[in-house]
From TrEMBL:
It comes from the Eukaryota. Keywords: Chloroplast, Membrane, Plastid, Transit peptide, Transmembrane, Transmembrane helix, Transport. Its main location: plastid. GO terms for molecular function: organophosphate ester transmembrane transporter activity; phosphoglycerate transmembrane transporter activity. This is Sugar phosphate transporter domain-containing protein. Residues 19-307 form the Sugar phosphate transporter domain. It is found in: Plastid, Chloroplast membrane. It is a multi-pass membrane protein. The chain crosses the membrane at residues 20-37, 49-69, 161-180, 192-211, 231-249. It comes from Linum trigynum. GO terms for cellular component: chloroplast membrane.
Length: 311
């Protein structure tokens, strides 16, 4: 019996690994495309509150249409579910808009270098808020993460305080989002895809009034005219691309969060940042100095040490 069953289990495990590998590769590729179009849009149209809102609106619309046409099964939601989703949605909204504000002020690579420090925030929040303690190597691994991010920040050629703070706020908000959403998804029958769809819709409702207050239709109309005059009518497609890819990469990341531990997720997320950092430096010809790149490399190596220490 054992001899017969073992290969089946191995086969299942291999299939699961391949599935997660495909999720990860898709997630990273979609994220690279999102980051490039998002930055192209922000360069011509520096209104991050509107672009963040449009990303959520586009995803919400795509999912509402998928449910209405039965391409995807609509989830059954009750008030208890919505209540547990609210803190996730608040954290998602803050993390999303803060990252976009950051990217409107600094190079994409810089935002993502600072965002590679997310594990340090995760330890800090787990320690200070949840009272968790970790083995010494975990704390030690934070030194290269924090030191590397600091080195990258002080040697950044186009440093900007809002750009830096936006990425830091995004780190903090996303740590809370990941803690709350893993809790919220546990034991629920809702799929990762539908969970993220509900999250998008709720975040859209939260963000819209703030976006209007922070920027507003007048600024948007003038900015849009400017962007179209600069880029041409194709500008609208850049906006569409950044919005669709934003939804897709997040949807795939939630589909993989369904299958893996938060730790594996955060390691996957850091590896995703390497592809974003490298591709955005190439595409946008971002000027970097060797010591700046060294800081980024140390921070990312620190994340690798962190994942080993946390096993
Ligand atoms: C956003 O706009 O939400 C950020 O670019 C997201 O950053 P992430 O890489 O942590 O998803």
């Amino acid at each position: 019996d054992i001899n017969i069953e073992l290969p089946v289990v191995d086969g299942e495990q291999a299939a699961q690994k391949i599935k997660i590998g495909i999720y990860f590769a898709t997630w990273w590729a979609l994220n690279v495309v999102f980051n490039i179009y998002n930055k192209k849009v922000l360069n011509a149209f520096p209104y991050p509150w509107l672009t963040s809102t449009l990303s959520l609106a586009c995803g919400s619309l795509m999912m509402l249409v998928s449910w209405a046409t039965r391409v995807a099964d609509a989830p059954r939601v009750d008030s208890e579910f919505l209540k547990s989703l609210l803190p996730v949605a608040i954290a998602h909204t803050i993390g999303h808009v803060a990252a976009t504000v950051s990217m409107s002020k600094v190079a994409v690579s810089f935002t993502h270098i600072i965002k590679s420090g997310e594990p340090a925030f995760s330890v800090l929040v787990s320690g200070l808020v949840l009272g968790e303690t970790f083995p010494l190597p975990v704390y030690l691994s934070l030194l290269p993460i924090i030191g590397g991010c600091a080195l990258a920040a002080i040697t950044e050629l186009n440093f900007n305080v809002i750009g830096f703070m936006g990425a830091m706020v995004s780190n903090l908000a996303f740590v809370f989002r990941n803690i709350f959403s893993k809790k919220g998804m546990k034991g629920k029958s809702i799929s990762g895809m539908n969970y993220y769809a509900c999250l998008s819709i709720m975040s859209l409702l939260i963000l819209t009034p703030f976006a209007i207050a922070m920027e507003g239709p007048q600024m948007w109309a003038a900015g849009w005219q400017n962007a179209v005059a600069q880029i041409g009518p194709n500008f609208v497609w850049w906006v569409v691309a950044q919005s669709i890819f934003y939804h897709l990469y997040n949807q795939v990341s939630y589909m993989s969060l369904d299958q893996i531990s938060p730790l594996t997720f955060s390691v996957g997320n850091t590896m995703k940042r390497i592809s974003v950092i490298v591709s955005s430096i190439i595409i946008f010809h971002t000027p970097i100095q060797p010591v700046n790149a060294l800081g980024a490399a140390i921070a990312i190596f620190g994340t690798f040490l962190y994942s080993q220490a946390k096993l």
